[in-house]
Amino acid sequence: MAVLWLLLALLMPAASRAAEPYSLFGPPLRTPTVLVYGASADEPAPPGYAALDHWLVAHPSLPRIDMLGGSFWLVARFTPTQSATEWVVTFDNTYYDNADIWVLGDDGLRRQSESGADTGINDMPRGTLPVKLTAGHHYAVVIHVTSKFFTALPRIDLHTRAQYHQRRISETALMLGALGILFGLGVFILFVGLWIKDRGYTLYGSQALILVLGWSFFFGVPQGWLGVNTEPVNFAQWFILLPVVHARFTIRFLDLWRHAPRMARIGDGIVIGAIVALPLSLWLPSLAFLLATIGVSVAVLFSASMGLWSLLHGVRRARFFTLAFMATLIPGAIILPVNFGLVPSAVDNADLLTLIGNACEAMLLAFALADHVKLVEDGRERFRRGMQEAVAKASIDALTGLGNRLAFNVMIEEITRRENADPAEGTWQIAMIDLDGLKQINDREGHERGDDLLCAVGEGLARLGELIRAFRLGGDEFALIAYGDELGKQRLGRALDELDLALRKSDYPGAGISYGICSAPINQRHFSSADFAELIRLADRIMYAHKSQRYSERNAERPLSELGSE
């Protein structure tokens, strides 16, 4: 990723050799060559075009402005060839504190205006001066600019008035649209993060709102639109603050402390560096933009690199995250050499292009958060299904396929949580069942044969009806939970008698079932655990009475010789 960004940055000088910047946001520009001269405080401008050459002799020529700020004279000469007379001269492509702009002509023209962050008269951010020019005459734009720092090499542009208004409408709409996207996403995601107490969302929302403040200060919204004096704070402080939340969001979102702890430490180093740079930018204002450029560049490169690394290592949440920072890297590669004053801007408004890149980044990061939510929900759904399967497996008797004691207790808990809506239709019934003869079969024929008997009983109980749930509580103990009236209770008793008869007639000698059935009061609406415990005790008592009765009946049927041999 670093190699890619460096390659793009190295390609920018070749792209910048064009005579005029590539037009992205309006009609093509006419940009005369700007010459730079040294200036001193309170120095008057030349009185007219004719005195310009003599006036320039007294000023030292410089190769370019100092990006760390100062006071300079900028001079650009031009000769209009178009028939249009209504023109607008703009001083733009950089941030500056104050600029006095003059347009001088050999036809006697001398117009002046003031612009800059300190004056609150800048326009996205540019100084403008409408003038009437005559084709064939010679003119010069003379600008005295003073600033604590510059963000790029200044540029002087010439537009016809119609071209200027067309460009201003398109750039203003794009600026407000991009800021609106950042603000809307920032407020919404920040609110969601605070509501659900998720630090990743909170960091992302804070990052978007810091970008809104930084770009608003850069484009002069508080100063020019609201009339607010923001000194000594300017846009640079907001962009210095950006890596603090930017790096933390990357660490949090990509879970770097788990996947790449060394990289997480680098991210924390970026945070510490930004915190140290913030007061330094106020103490040394000329370094503010340089610190902001370095901090944001390092933070974006860190995030993009970590996104790509995570993507290559199978971290699915990094998909939209990586794409988001690609949307920032491309305009960043264009504007970075411009910010350091290495080359003129290759496009007509690199700052607006970067703002649009930030808006695209914010939208893609919102997709990344949404994608992350989907992945989390998918994980929760898989966990829920796994838990359901685990509970289902833990609730099933492996031998008979009936519910086990856990399932029996869970069903009782579910019943106690709801009300019997219509007691007239029936009530809950408990049947406790004991399998007779299992021990003898295990002893005589082996446990596999005993298991076959248990399965046969389980199959018989499972076929009793949809409103009857059967359970094997353990060993030779079974239970039924049914819902019905007294007639249903009688039918259940007959069905159990039929199952007992079928077992005795099968090839399981001595097998059968003893049971006891107990019903809750017919008018009872609410059932507690104590109520069901009492039903179970009563059903057990009836079952043991039934078992004792059956034992006596079987002994009465056996020959005296067998009884005597026992």
Automatic annotation (TrEMBL):
It catalyses: 2 GTP = 3',3'-c-di-GMP + 2 diphosphate. Coiled coil: none annotated. Its EC number is 2.7.7.65. InterPro entries: 7TMR_DISM_rcpt_extracell_dom1 (IPR011623), 7TMR_DISM_rcpt_extracell_dom2 (IPR011622), Diguanylate_Cyclase (IPR050469), GGDEF_dom (IPR000160), Nucleotide_cyclase (IPR029787), Rev_trsase/Diguanyl_cyclase (IPR043128). It holds the Pfam family 7TMR-DISM_7TM. Residues 1-18 form the signal peptide. Residues 426-562 form the GGDEF domain. CDD domains: GGDEF. Keywords: Membrane, Signal, Transmembrane, Transmembrane helix. The keyword Repeat does not apply. It is an enzyme of class 2 (transferase). The chain crosses the membrane at residues 173-196, 208-228, 234-254, 266-283, 289-308, 320-340. SMART domains: GGDEF (SM00267). This is diguanylate cyclase. It comes from Dyella acidiphila.
